Amino acid sequence: MKNNPLLHNLFLWADRHARGHRNPAPFTRANPSGGSGDRGGGLSRFTQAIGWLLCGGKSALHAIASLPHRLFPHRQPFPASTSPTVLMSLSPPVSKRNYFRFFSLTLVSAVLMFAIAGCNPGSGGLGGRADLVIGSKNFTEQVILGELVAQHIENQTDLTVDRRLNLGGTFICHTAVISGDIDTYVEYTGTSLSAILERKPISNPQKVYNIVKEAYEEQFDLTITEPLGFENTYAIIIRGEDAEIYNLETISDTVEYTPEWQGGFSYEFIEREDGFPGLAETYNLEFAENPQVMDMGLMYRALVENKVDMVAGGSTDGLIQTLGLVVLEDDKNYFPPYDATPVIREATLQKYPQLREVYAQLGGVISEEEMRRMNYQVDGEFRRVSNVVREFLATKDFPPIDSAKDFSPIDSAKDFSPIDSDS
Asked: Do 374 and 388 touch, CB atoms closer than 8 A?
């Protein structure tokens, strides 16, 4: 885009205008707050809306209807399943000036969407659609994993890859892969089980994997490949000074203090079967007020600034240690396993069978410590995602793919991790 000065300047003007003069600086996880995860973070909610628009199809319709909430949020995001009509009717009241901003930015969004598609050979413009479209959710780890899958495919095959990273939450990515807007993204087994399949949480990692794999194949024509090797479970997090003052080590230890605390959780965590409702019931947690609903990227900043006292983050988040935060032990084993596992369309595997071995090579390749380190390199050291991923892959010795090989389907019965329980 920088090769086109007019388009580049238009994009920068729109982003600056979306943030407004009162907050000219980009809002990033590394500030620390969360966001896209690439160097410089998510430029603004305008930029995130552009990412939604580039998803195309039904996702684009939902993105356009969601723009009032993206640009003028009132701390109450809505899932992808919410109809565009409902979203528009629920838009918060804004001034005439903000209406002008909204409609002007919507117009700019449409212009940029088609301009970018026309300038990028891999995005379905004048140069045609790339062989594969890889998506990701909208937080640092997901952007890293999407880039990692993309680079590994490019390194091991002659396939061209279009990156549509930082799309949105679970339901947006799931809808995009089912509809064919993207071919693949990385999901977490516990999320698939509870949020997508709406099953009760199970603590056995192998059982969860098998259930999800079978259901995805039968219901969605999607293949679950081998897990990447690490788990990113929900982590209940508090400030380090609170943990020290009150001698808090487990979630159960906080029960006597939460009536005076303020919780802060993402909309998805508030609504999910394996989220806040079950957590509060399991541990008998009661807060002074209803938990604040906020973007995942806002939670650490709110916690550090004493605006909330407890949040639900990810166990592999690189900023936990950097900010002096403490992860409380899930002493009642409430959360199910969340093994990071690529999801890919079966039609894509049929078209490019060499991808079966490419994905098999990624099985077990990332440890929890390695994922935490990559997250920190992006969030804490402000490094580019592409460089962090490139350096990581360079440490792995992947054999070349034999293009003449008869690729067989991935073995769904293969055990990937020890079974810790029979539940």
From this structure: yes
Higher-pLDDT residue of 97 and 64 is: 97
Structure token pair of residue 226: 């081998």
Lookup result for tokens 């079950």: 278
Q: How far is CA 98 from CA 16, 17, 23, 68, 93, in A?
A: 14, 11, 15, 10, 9
Give the full edge-to-edge strand order of the sheet including 184-188.
Answer: 161-168, 132-137, 184-188, 340-345, 222-224
Write out the two tokens for 295: 């973007």
146 and 139 Cβ atoms separated by less than 8 Å: no
Tokens of 255: 């029960």
Omega before 32 within 30 of 0, i.e. cis: yes
Look at residues 292, 278, 65, 77 and name the one whose alpha carbon lies nearest to residue 170.
Answer: 77
The stretch 48-66 carries a mean pLDDT of 46
Q: What is the structure's pLDDT at 423?
A: 38
Higher-confidence position of 161 and 116: 161
Residue 37: helix, strand or coil by DSSP? Answer: coil
DSSP state of 254: G
Domain boundaries of the chain, sorted by first residue: 5-119, 132-231+340-394, 234-328
pLDDT (0 to 100) of residue 418: 42
Rounded distance between C-alpha atoms, residue 379 and residue 142, angstroms: 13
- C-beta of residue 359 within 8 angstroms of C-beta of residue 226: yes
Mean pLDDT along residues 328-351: 95
**DSSP per residue over 211-223, as a string?**
HHHHHHHHHH-EE
Classify strands 340-345 and 222-224 as parallel, antiparallel or unpaired: antiparallel
Q: What's domain 132-231+340-394's architecture?
A: 3-Layer(aba) Sandwich (3.40)
Structure token digits, residue 58: 């039904």
As given in the structure block, the two tokens for residue 421 are 């329980």
CA 394-399-400 angle, 5° bins: 105
Q: Where does 158-259 show beta strands of DSSP type E? A: 161-168, 184-188, 222-224, 234-239
Q: What are phi and psi for residue 223, nearest 5 degrees?
A: -105, 130
Assigned fold of 234-328: D-Maltodextrin-Binding Protein; domain 2 (3.40.190)
Whether this model's pTM surpasses 0.85: no
The predicted-structure confidence for 129-141, as pLDDT tens digits, reads as follows 799 999 999 989 9
Distance CA 341, CA 211 (A): 13
Q: What's the pLDDT at 360?
A: 97
Residue 272's pLDDT band (boundaries 50, 70, 90)? Answer: confident
Does pLDDT of 389 surpass 70? yes
